[in-house]
Design goal:
alpha/beta; six-stranded parallel sheet; Rossmann fold; seven-stranded parallel sheet; 18 helices; 13 strands
Length: 508
């Protein structure tokens, strides 16, 4: 099978480069260039993964400049690395300019950086591959990633032509581990593979969730209600986990974004040497620690959520928790240890703002469903949806207007949004799992952790009951601002560079 796949790959590569050369569309180099290919098909997205991509390119720049000439080259020829990003977005003449503007508006990051970089738009991307798989999701998504990796290497690599650019390092920044098999087993096993893993495709927590028959967004009630379906899914998950571990161990350098992710990857990718694996916290928008983080005088009793409108972010839990808070601390005047006057003061102008990006029509439909849920819970007048906001708008809400930051994703791999809310001076309430629990928040010290609607409602009440400038809130803000310094852009760049140097993937 591998022999046949290799022949098919060489055939596709030959056809593509013959066609592109004849149409004068290929990039012909005067000297052979070594390429670092970032596999990030949706690079125009506005999430934390995209911020990692742009900061990783910035961190690489001095390393590539240091290695820009070869002392070991047999002919003494000078060469340099070039960075390409593999994208599924269709080509247009203004794409790169639009991308630069998008990154500036969303992340306040200046592009282009000093070294040569470009975007390769993948061909043969089918329409059905652009939407999430509805069944056998992990297998189908992994197969799709392998198809895209195949196409990426077909378009970039032409090993038969010494004048063309060839991928020396394949860098996956989206968690598409099955792409490693295409790189190592089919395209060229001499290509070095690096990965920044935001979250494992499968984890022991997912197996436990299926075993306990708990219904969630990725474990339908039709499965949880059937013992037969449950055991079939367990077998499917177990087989996938074994294969995932085998493929993942092909990597030459692996960086993970949290202790939680490290533990799962270390357990699953058993063939991966420990020296190849390191924790590199993602780059977060954290200001320098000089004084207090932000001015809180004019803050309002607003609760802010910043997360893409994806199902795993569990915005529904935020709406239900907010509705419970209103029920317990506004409508229920007989709540224990509360009097009527205090209740009226506590809930004055309380508002929930759900701010996030919509990647596609599915996300837009999800927003419509959330608005319907808000109406069912009778809180629609107190809930505001802000979609695809600019960086300036996001900063205004976080640093000047809201008091509480809200996060509800179960087993969030890290939580860049959590860190950024804490850095902006928000009293942050995060889900008691994953990265927020293991790396970011210490309950009642620099924020709050919660799991149930009741716990979230109580935490909101605690954060709002004495106003934004209460001594308790000021203490939490100070502790939070100090603790998030280890997640700054500068810390990421240093840790990223150390991992690259340790792995020697750029060694000629």
């Amino acid at each position: 099978m591998l022999v046949w796949l290799r022949r098919c790959f060489r055939r596709d590569r030959l056809k593509y480069h013959q066609r592109s050369h004849s149409n004068n569309k290929s990039h012909r180099s005067k000297s052979k260039k070594k390429v670092i290919g970032f596999f990030h098909p949706r690079c125009m997205g506005g999430g934390g993964g995209e911020r990692v991509l742009w900061k990783a390119m910035e961190a690489l720049e001095p390393l590539l400049r240091t290695n820009s000439t070869s002392t070991n080259s047999p002919n003494g020829d000078e060469y340099y690395y070039r960075v390409v990003i593999f994208s599924i977005d269709p080509y247009r003449e203004t794409y790169k300019e639009d991308l630069i503007r998008h990154v500036k508006e969303r992340f306040d990051i200046e592009l282009p950086i000093s070294f040569d970089w470009s975007v390769i738009h993948l061909e043969n991307v089918r329409e059905d591959q652009l939407s999430p798989s509805k069944s056998w999701t992990m297998v189908m998504d992994s197969y799709r990633d392998m198809c895209w990796a195949w196409q990426a290497l077909v378009q970039c690599n032409d090993n038969d032509n010494e004048n063309d650019d060839n991928v020396e390092v394949f860098f996956d920044t989206t968690g598409c581990a099955f792409a490693f098999a295409v790189v190592k087993w089919i395209a060229n096993n001499h290509i070095r593979v690096a990965a920044y893993v935001h979250y494992p495709t499968i984890s022991t927590d997912m197996l436990q969730l299926v075993f306990q028959r708990r219904p969630t967004y990725n474990n339908a009630s039709s499965v949880t209600q059937s013992i037969l379906y449950t055991y079939i899914k367990l077998i499917y998950y177990a087989a996938f986990a074994v294969t995932y571990g085998l493929i993942g161990s092909l990597a030459d350098c692996v960086m993970v974004n949290s202790t939680w992710t490290y533990n799962h990857i270390h357990y699953l990718w058993k063939g991966l040497s420990t020296y190849k694996l390191s924790i590199v916290y993602p780059p977060c928008d954290v200001p320098n620690i000089t004084t207090t983080s932000t001015n809180t005088v004019n803050r309002k009793n607003w609760i802010l959520s910043i997360a893409q409108f994806r199902p795993e972010k569990d915005h529904a839990l935020q709406l239900r928790s907010f509705a419970k808070y209103i029920h317990l601390y506004e409508n229920n005047t007989n709540h224990e240890n509360e009097n009527e006057n205090e209740n009226e003061n506590e809930v004055e102008d309380v508002k929930l703002i759900l701010m996030g990006s919509c990647r596609n029509e599915q996300d837009e439909d999800r927003v419509k469903q959330l608005k319907q849920l808000a109406q069912q819970l009778h809180v629609q007048d107190r809930v505001q949806f802000v979609c695809n906001a600019s960086y300036a708008t996001l900063q205004q809400y976080m640093k000047e207007q809201a008091t509480v930051g809200l996060h509800t994703m179960w087993n969030e791999h890290f939580g860049i949004g959590v860190v950024e809310m804490m850095a902006a001076g928000l009293i942050t309430i995060a889900h008691n799992s994953g990265g927020p629990a293991s790396d970011i928040i210490t309950h009642n010290v620099n924020g709050y952790l919660a799991t149930t609607e009741q716990q979230y409602a109580d935490a909101i009440h605690t954060a709002l009951q004495h106003g934004p400038n209460s001594p308790t809130n000021q203490s939490i803000q100070k502790q939070a601002f100090s603790s998030v310094q280890r997640f700054s852009d500068a810390k990421f760049i240093t840790s990223f560079q150390n991992s690259i140097k340790k792995s020697n993937i750029l060694t000629n």
